[in-house]
Q: What sequence folds into this?
């Protein structure tokens, strides 16, 4: 059974806040300009939150499976020879193996010869994210967007780095842009939800999680995250939270965060029952 609370139920609990949709979104339809230009424009209209968000490494979407090694606009770069393609393949393998320093060195060698390869820049940004060099991650993804503005993964990865640096407002702009380019991008929904939580926009965050589950109802971490938000609402959200945790465990019985959330929820329920018995 799908653990998805209806949007109307969440809106009833939070009547002053609406849900994110294309008509309400404040960001541009797709961010085509550089990050610096967009950042300056946003800074002029609103201050940025300084709250830091800790994303799990599994939430970073490197985009390695979503783009070809050579975007069509860079087809002429293949004349550089197969050795560079071999280096890029080795860099990808090193990234997946967690050898990020070696992966970055190999990518830099490729990028020196092919500076406008979007897939290389995308991979370099993902590597820098894992190395916690978030500023450089932004630089590489920004360059990637300038070369290929329609690459949703670059928008989402840039947003992840912005979120790590506490620039929540601009992170949300780039998540929205990624989702306009790729409406079924579940990782972008999941990570944008954490940004919305950081701003206290709980109903909007719930809606992001529910959108991700509509696309793929087997996302264990999303069920768990939604359960955490329902549990935070107190008594009114406990039944929905329990449903979410149980669905996460049905999908993965070894998923520790769901066991922890369910245990905390049952403990809180027991304490509530004990308090009620004392009052009666």
A:
């Amino acid at each position: 059974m799908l653990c998805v609370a209806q949007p109307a139920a969440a809106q009833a609990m939070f009547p002053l806040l609406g849900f994110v949709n294309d008509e309400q979104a404040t960001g541009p339809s797709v961010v085509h300009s550089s990050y610096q230009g967009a950042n300056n424009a946003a800074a002029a209209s609103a201050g940025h939150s300084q709250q830091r968000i800790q994303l799990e490494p599994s939430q970073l979407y490197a985009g390695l499976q979503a783009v070809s090694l050579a975007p069509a606009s860079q087809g002429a770069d293949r004349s550089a020879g197969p050795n560079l393609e071999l280096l890029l393949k080795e860099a990808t393998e090193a990234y997946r193996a967690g050898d990020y320093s070696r992966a970055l060195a190999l990518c830099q060698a490729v990028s020196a010869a092919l500076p406008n390869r979007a897939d290389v820049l995308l991979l370099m940004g993902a590597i820098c994210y894992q190395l916690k060099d978030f500023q450089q991650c932004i630089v590489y993804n920004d360059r990637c967007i300038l070369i290929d503005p329609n690459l949703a993964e670059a928008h989402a990865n840039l947003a992840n780095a912005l979120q790590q640096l506490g620039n929540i407002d601009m992170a949300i702009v780039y998540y929205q842009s990624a989702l306009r380019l790729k409406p079924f991008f579940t990782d972008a929904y999941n990570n944008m939800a954490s940004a919305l939580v950081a701003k206290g926009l709980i109903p909007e965050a719930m809606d992001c999680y529910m959108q991700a589950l509509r696309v793929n109802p087997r996302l264990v971490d999303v069920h768990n995250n939604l359960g955490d938000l329902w549990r935070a609402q107190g008594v009114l959200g406990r039944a929905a939270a329990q449903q979410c945790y149980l669905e996460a465990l049905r999908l993965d019985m070894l998923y520790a965060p769901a066991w922890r959330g369910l245990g905390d929820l049952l403990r809180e329920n027991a304490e509530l029952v004990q308090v009620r018995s004392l009052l009666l």
